[in-house]
# Entry
Amino acid sequence: MSHLAVAAEPRTSTGLHSRKLAFWAFLGSECLFFGSLISTYLVYKGKSLVGPYPGHILNIPFTSVSTFVLLMSSLTMVLALAGIQRGRMGQFRVWIAATALLGMTFLTGQVIEFSSFVREGLTLQGNLFGATFFVLTGFHGAHVSAGVVWLWSLFAASFGGRVKPENALDVEIAGLYWHFVDVVWIAIFTLVYLIQ
Amino acid sequence: MTTAAAALPAREAGPTGLWSWAATVDHKRIAVLYYFTAFAFFLLGGVEALIIRLQLAGPGRHVVSAQAYNQLFTMHGTTMIFLALMPLSASFFNFVVPLQVGARDVAFPRLNAFSYWVFLFGGLFLNLSFVAGGAPAAGWFGYANLTSGQYSPGHGIDFWALGLLTLGVSSLAAAFNFIVTIVNLRAPGMSLMRLPVFSWMTLVTSFLIILAFPIITVALILLMFDRMAGTHFFVPAAGADPVLWQHLFWLFGHPEVYILILPAMGIISEVLPTFARRPLFGYPFVVYSGIFIAFLAFGVWSHHMFSVGLGPVADSFFALSTMLIAVPTGVKIFNWIATLWGGSIRFTAAMKFALGFIAMFIIGGLSGVMHASPPADLQQTDTYFVVAHFHYVLFGGTLLGLFAGMYYWFPKATGRFMDERLGSWHFWLTLVGMNLTFFPMHFLGLLGMPRRVYTYAGDLGFNTMNLVCTVGAFVIAVSTLVFVANLFRSLRAGRPAPPDPWGGGTLEWSIPSPPPEYNFAAIPEVRGRDPLWLEQRSGPAERRGARGLRPDAHIHVPAPTGLPMLAALGVALVPAGLIFGLWLSAIGAAVMLFGIYRWAFTPI
Amino acid sequence: MSTAPQPAAAEPRERALEHPHPNAAKYLTVATVLAALTAIEVWVYYVRAMRPMLAPVLLVLSACKFSLVALFYMHLKFDNRLFSALFAVPLAIAAAVLLALMALNGAFAHFVGR
# Structure
């Protein structure tokens, strides 16, 4: 990825930035990845031979708050993007840090939630619900974590002058990743938590 | 950053030395790396096949133990598909596509290098299993729950699953690269319906890769969790269903076979018109058929599972969809034949292989359509009939197609011709050899000889045919040696080749052989399909086309860098550490992150 | 005949500062709707009367949230349709795979009377 000015990119057949094109293709690919994980969860739903079962363990109020936190982080992300696109570096830094912090809040919520599940007897090895639940939400959480690292990197790089309005595309792409991770959670929250 | 003045001689001495190869981001050199690495793995897979055939040459033989035999057929299949055929195709994507679309390189040159190095390291890791406790031995499709820790103790399956996960990263990265290259870096005037068919097939194949590989990624992850984390994704005693593995695997596996064949079909679609001196008949039909095949590829997977007991509704659905997918394939074949009809055929080695492709692929396709019927398939499945089918389509199809491409584009890549006489010997020996090896397998299968058996009883009527198969395999081996001899001789002392040795119509023939580092001195403007033929027909007054442009004054060539190789090493070490110790994974992750960060913040 | 490379099909339209863009107020509105939809989802979950139609209602609500984020935050509504296609087609395939796997594992058996 280059930090040279966006305007210096060679003209392309579609008029679209190659990196943005590549990234959307990547997000399409990720749909199949999460789709397969969600499929595994749904195929094995109700097939655990022993508990704990979803109805006993899942804490809808708690997870609703986590969901809300992640949704709001998408808002802060677009505000960060708007900031850098308008050249308001201060705004950019505030909102991208907010996004990262909200992401970390979500992850903390996940950790708290998962620890309590484990204490109540839900484990990877215990039953199919544990296995499918933890692998699905675990990979989602790993994606969020990678996103958090990415966001903090952009935050740090903006101080060194390596992230500037001319390369707002870098932030836009990070934003696409972040929103995607949010959108996957919307699917998981509905299919795993709400429709039991 | 380097710049190239326009007046450089065509055959400039490129950078030399090991580091120039390790740090290259030039698609043409990466193609060469892919080619020789893939070919080496092809020879390895071939040796595995020869040992298999020696073991099966007669009943009750003991050339290898049953356990060793299982490792051999597993590694033969895995190697040929993932380490030979796919990377050989990648070698062609790399060399040809930027030239055909009129670009100076792929969209992401460093990502391109990264793809190659991950392939190399992944392939080495997979084969490390031979000396690290035993290669995987559960077949190239690793059915659960044979692959569980209980039934496959040791690390063989771990090497298999982790190796494939690594190789998947390589394929995915390359696929994203080629999608963007073809969509975004075409020369002015090259609309999608003017794209050469090989580039079209590369685009379709790349989409298949990015959609199918995530599915097997999940399957392999679930398998590794079962093997290393104590989960029960495929353990019946916990209420799980091993058939889920089959669904996930074949949801990937069927698109995978189209990933394997479409590039070769693309090559044929270039070679046939050139040596028939006629444009491809029905270009839009060939292109749309390829796209249709790709869509349908996701709707046929359970035809690999007709004996599992999915029920009549599922079986019927997949039987219908499988028969349907034969149609666009047939359309392509008719179009190729129509291209030849009335053409002025030149029987060069490349053309022989292309014609051989058509014939052998038709045979493979016919046995495939036979499989599409569940009642018939109940007898054929898991017998040598299936082995015959897929070797006809993969050897007779993909491999013959790749050889056609080698003879066709070798002069462009090296500036030398391959020897036509040796090429002819290679072709005929290959054709005879492959038919000797694989045709009897149809009958063996119908007689009931199962797949993946390390020996058989002597009174079942299998003996003579198996011997014939083994003889055929050695004929193939000889033909391969002929090719290798031709390859190395031609590299050193082949007859010099001009920019356009065959009278081709696509853009790669408009630049010197071998091409300069920057490919095109001036990016051409394209006014139709087969731009060079168009230009010849239009005559000298219309010389705004591919040849004769004044060169660009300032050409930026991406600088070489070792960061992609470093990042690839990191990527390969992470899964390796799951076998050798997590400290290795930690090092791998650190190296990977360092490599990626430096790469991300270094301008190209 | 010029020496410069001929222009490609279109100028890059993603220039950083010239972009037609929803403003912060629009984004805040979307965020409010997303929060409201989430609240409704949770409410529906707890209302006993809604149990019979829980699944379809929740699927519709979450599809709305998904679309809002994709169209506005990911900017698909305002961007080139190629991006939408690159996302929508794989999404459709993923959904089809999901439904197929569920069907093959008997999830919809009671709908077909078996």
Summary: Residues 37 and 143 of chain A are 14 Å apart (CA to CA). The domain at 17-44+60-194 of chain A is CATH 1.20.120.80 (Four Helix Bundle (Hemerythrin (Met), subunit A)). The first helix of chain A runs from residue 18 to 43. Residues 1-8 of chain A have pLDDT under 50 and may be disordered.
